[in-house]
Write a structure and sequence with these properties.
The complex is a heterodimer of chains A (about 40) and B (about 230). Chain A has about 40 residues and is mainly alpha-helical. Chain A is built from two helices and no strands. The longest helix of chain A has 24 residues. Chain B has about 230 residues and is of the alpha/beta class. Chain B has a single domain, classed as Rossmann fold. In chain B, a hairpin with a 2-residue loop joins strand 8 and strand 9. In chain B, helix 4 packs across helix 5 and helix 5 packs parallel to helix 6. The radius of gyration of chain B is 17 Å and the shape is globular. Classes of the chains: A mainly alpha (about 40), B alpha/beta (about 230). At the A-B interface, helix 1 of A face helix 3 of B.
Chain lengths: ~40, ~230
């Protein structure tokens, strides 16, 4: 059995994956909307 | 003396002025001594424990633990001091849900320099001593309230701290589990020969301790002796 800081970080990232993905998707969609609006000048 | 506390004062600045919470606390505790602190909500018990454990800074005063002055330390040294010298048990267990019981107990050691095999063996030994030898690979969500708190006690002891602080560790437990946890804390304190300070609301639980003090409006005084 081993437990390192790296394993802890990976385990925590995996545990919070759904929440992290939801935030990431929100950022991507918001960025795309704002960039698109700026490009078409609306 | 191993723990010396001199004239600890703590004030919070509020919109209506200065609010004194700790009013010049003095305390001396030898190594391997235990103490229970009682008092009403808002009397300053938790603030005092946080100051002792280096989680909060007092407005003035002096603390010496084994000759070390945590109030004079840099943030880095203070973090090292908290990791190596102080164990904390809170009212809530604060176990991380993504880690097994054994991994939770090992967490404080991730920042230390103890050899891995040695610390894993120590964690297993501690879990056996708190009666969780068959629950090491379980997740915290699979444990009862009393078992979670016992795991939290094992986690607090993994670095073999000189000072073990417990802030109402039985506040969320029923009477039987509360007494079990308090007796467990005292047993481990006697085995580890550290300094144990416990805050509790329960007179019955406080009577298990050889020395009981009362906090009233930021003033700490001897309350009663169970002997």
């Amino acid at each position: 059995m081993s437990f390192s800081l790296e394993q802890f970080v990976v385990k925590t990232a995996r545990f919070h994956l759904k929440g992290n993905l939801a935030v990431l998707m929100g950022v991507v969609i918001a960025t795309a909307s704002l960039t698109g609006a700026l490009l078409v000048g609306d | 003396m191993t723990l010396q506390v001199r004239q600890i004062r703590k004030e919070f600045i509020t919109r209506s002025g200065s609010l004194p919470v700790l009013c010049g606390i003095d305390l001396d505790l030898d190594s391997d001594k235990s103490l229970a602190i009682m008092g009403q909500s808002g009397s300053g018990k938790s603030t005092f424990l946080h100051v002792l454990g280096g989680l909060d800074k007092p407005s003035s005063g002096k603390i010496l633990l084994d000759g070390l002055d945590p109030l004079a330390m840099s943030e880095t040294d203070l973090a090292h001091y908290r990791n190596q010298k102080v164990g904390f048990v809170f009212q809530d267990h604060h176990l991380l849900p993504q880690c097994t019981v054994l991994e939770n107990v090992l967490l404080p050691s991730l920042l230390g320099a103890m050899p891995k095999n040695e610390v894993i063996q120590l964690a297993k030994d501690l879990l056996a001593r708190v009666g969780l030898e068959n629950r090491m690979d379980h997740m915290p969500s699979e444990l009862s309230g009393g078992e979670r708190q016992r795991a939290a006690v094992a986690r607090a002891l993994i670095m073999r701290p000189r000072l073990l602080l417990a802030d109402e560790p039985t506040g969320n437990l029923d009477k039987r589990n509360a007494e079990n946890i308090m007796r467990l804390l005292l047993k481990l304190h006697e085995e580890e020969k550290n300094i144990l300070i416990v805050v509790t609301h329960s007179v019955d639980l406080a009577k298990l301790f050889p020395r009981v003090m009362a906090m009233d409006d930021g003033i700490l005084a001897e309350a009663l002796s169970s002997n």
